[in-house]
Amino acid sequence: MTNPFTIILLVSVLLFTIATASAQAATDSLPDHPDVQRFIATMAQRHTFTERALTQLFKQVRVRQQIITTISRPAESKPWFQYRPIFITPKRISQGIAFHKKHAAELQHAERIYGVPGEIITAILGVETYYGQRQGHYRVIDALATLAFAYPPRSRFFRSELEQFLLLAQEEKIDPLSIHGSYAGAMGQPQFIASSYRRYAVDFNGDTRRDIWHDSADAIGSIANYLQQHGWRRGQPVAGQASIQGQAYRHYLQQGIKPHTLVSELKRRGISLTAPLPGDRKAALIGLKNQSQREFWVVLNNFYVITRYNHSPLYAMAVYQLSEAIRLARASGQSRSDKPL
After folding, report:
1. pLDDT for 20 beyond 60
2. Rounded distance, CA 296 to CA 239, Å?
3. Residue 290 DSSP one-character state
């Protein structure tokens, strides 16, 4: 009988070989790649691009094997006890307090218009790019082309994003070779993908440009608009830690992170809250893996909205806990924090 580990290893090697071969083929001559040629022809038919101009552009695009390697092992695959220390640190909290103080007027304006607390906006910027300081070093067009033409598991999605990116560059009059971002093609201080930029980015300071790379006001307004458009509810809580009695909780863990059950019903089923949440609101139950056990949280609509920014519940919890650390430190008048939340 074949060892299961051997089968897994062989499959992994095969997938890596296919991805590497695809990347090498695309790198050798990107405009000659059949999929790239079809993409160029489609763009010329749908939009106001010429095949000649796009062919010249793609001659300057490079497929990066490192991008394929990185997207295959995202941080969100870590357990909570390894993921949390990446983002909930004294330095990130103190930098968040400083960012909130510096941009207090823009954050207050965003909360008035969109209903999203300034600490949540600040925390998203803190998790995404360390408050704009780490926006990514890959050329976005290289990242998108690599994943569109040399990474079969997500090629359809990233070809769509590549289309959106080229339209974005055309509309905003930006050189598509000049924009840098993450390995997945996310851009600017809030790390918007191209489709999100086109739908949700706003000119928040009135200078007629939507500059999420250099203008923190536009980044703040764009995040707030994104969350509001995805259903953020003004003044409502995000989550509350819970303790478990009995076995009924297992059923709720399997229902996903979209709110589905009233908080009052969860309480009746042995899920107790360490802080009060409205009993008439729908919620979900999540379990986060620590080294020796799981910690449980009841999460509401606004938590689910944060997962529309990044679908991982680990990401949403990191944003929430960082926002709470910033809020509590500001409420106590601290300029910095030496203790994680």
Report:
1. no
2. 10
3. -
> Which residues touch 153 (CB under 8 Å, ≥6 apart)?
none
pTM: 0.88
The CA-based dihedral angle spanning residues 52, 55, 60, 66, taken in that order and rounded to the nearest 10 degrees? 160
Q: For residues 132 and 117, what is the distance between their CA atoms, to the nearest angstrom?
A: 19
- Confidence band for 80, pLDDT divided at 50, 70 and 90: very high
What whole-number distance in Å separates Cα of residue 143 and Cα of residue 134? 16
Residue among 121, 127, 146 at smallest CA distance from 36: 146
| DSSP H or E stretch at residue 251 | helix 249-253
What token pair was written down for 93?
A: 């909290």
Q: Known catalytic residues?
A: 128
User: For residue 122, with 0-12 CB atoms within 10 Å meaning exposed, 13-18 middle and 19 or more buried, which class applies?
Assistant: buried
Q: What pLDDT shows up at residue 316?
A: 98
In the chain, what are the helix, strand and coil shares in percent, each to the nearest 5? 55, 10, 35
Euclidean distance between CA atoms 332 and 324, whole angstroms: 12
> Which of 314, 300, 308 minimizes the C-alpha distance to 266?
300
How far is CA 73 from each of CA 76, 137, 183, 243, 274, rounded to the nearest angstrom? 8, 18, 12, 32, 34
Q: What are phi and psi of 245, to 5 degrees?
A: -130, 140
Q: What is the pLDDT of residues 282-331, one digit of tens each?
A: 999 999 999 989 999 999 999 999 999 999 999 999 999 999 999 999 99
Give the integer Cα–Cα distance in Å for 171 and 123.
Answer: 30
| The token pair that represents 17 in the structure block | 């070989």
Distance separating alpha carbons of residues 93 and 340, to the nearest angstrom: 8
